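Below is a typical protein record.
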Amino acid sequence: MAYLVEILIPITDSGPNRENLSRVRNELTAKFGGVTLHLDSPAEGLWNDDGDVERDRIVIVEVMTDHLDRSFWSTYREELEARFRQDELVARASQIDRL
């Protein structure tokens, strides 16, 4: 059994976000041996903020791992929230069967 960890990161086209995404890519590749960033077709996130609909472009970061270290991912999510100046980032994990 393995896990797929996904982090949803709202981005803009500004330089600092691209630099931060490169840093995420390097950090996760070094720790887990690989990472996938869905950069060319970002998703769109919508939410209601006091009656106004807000939108974000979302990059999805994926890592496959055999062991789910919840403490690491929780701490890393908090670091990314600060780095990307977000109140909250979605980080989720799913059990997967490699085919």
